[in-house]
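WARN no homologs supplied; continuing
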Amino acid sequence: MSTNASFNTEFRAETTSLYAVGLAFIVLRLGSRVHKLGITRLSPDDWVMAQNILWYTLLYVSVNKIIFGGGSNFMTEEEIATLTPETKATRVAGSKWVLVSEESMVLTIWSCKACMLFIYRRLTQGLKQRKIVDAVSIYVVLGFIGTQIALFTSCRPFSAYWSVPATDAQCWNYFHYEVTEGCFNVSADLTLLIVGMPLLFKARIPVQQKLILLTVFGMGLFVITAALLCKIYGLYPPLISYSYLNWFFREASVSVYVTNIPVIYSLLREAFPAMARWGYNTNKGSATRSNNGRIRTGTKDIGMTPFNRLGSTTDDAADSMKTQSQEHIIQYQDHGALKIHKDVTFTVQKEGSDDEDLESGRSPHHDPSHDRSTTYVTAQ
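OK structure emitted
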């Protein structure tokens, strides 16, 4: 089956645009992570995405080779009847590129799944959902193994994949392999969405921040849709055409986008700090403590003398950004009563990578919350 010049031009323009954006996302991600952490401190998902450049690039090259290289053993009866030694050699080469495209596609999208699972494992560390993520990880690994077995065993002998004309239907339509790959691929993507959505809804972040993450999940739904359309255009007889390659590359590209957008968003927050404050109310009143040992709440200014657990006076500078437990003796002049005020302040600060901030729903510019427990003993 051949294509026309108009389709070829549009195909090259589309795939080149998608590839350029995907490659830019990967480079931005890795560049920001290396700048932030250094090469030796990169996380496993960063290394997985780094090697994914090879498979994504190979996929881009192979799909264009199929279209512009003269076709493959995907042929009509008329094309088989008019074969010449030259066109046969061209189609043999094209058939090999089809095999390369299928393998590079599997490696590209499964690398993206691995990256998302690493992120989920960090999100669910110490939580009961961690077991679910581990189970999904096992399923994804088994799916990858099953897909590889199907690809290397569906057409026998293996060299028949580039036979022209094809000696068996499995060697040009990849039917058994495509069904196996489609089942594992779509089911794994759906499972990743099902696991991720509850984490998003439970995150204590403003609606504006959640909308950004919902957009990422919406792109995940597009990936599933593209995977289904790819199979329809590649396997359903009335619709079989090289249009399946359009959805083939769209699926891979959007998978790359979805995997890298969280880290890219963290980079944008650093470049544009206002983005990190979207939806947060920074105008609420709060109790503040001055350097002279007085605390001001609203319009009331109260003198306080801090003591630590051992009874020695604490130093404000040393208390900064630490977990504090203090008792204060407060003299209220207007009531003439002596009150013992116990003030417990917890401040937890975790230094993490950019994508961890986004994944956990934290804003690096958001003031940490204070939990206070107060006990008053009044002497009349």
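The chain has eleven helices and seven strands.
OK
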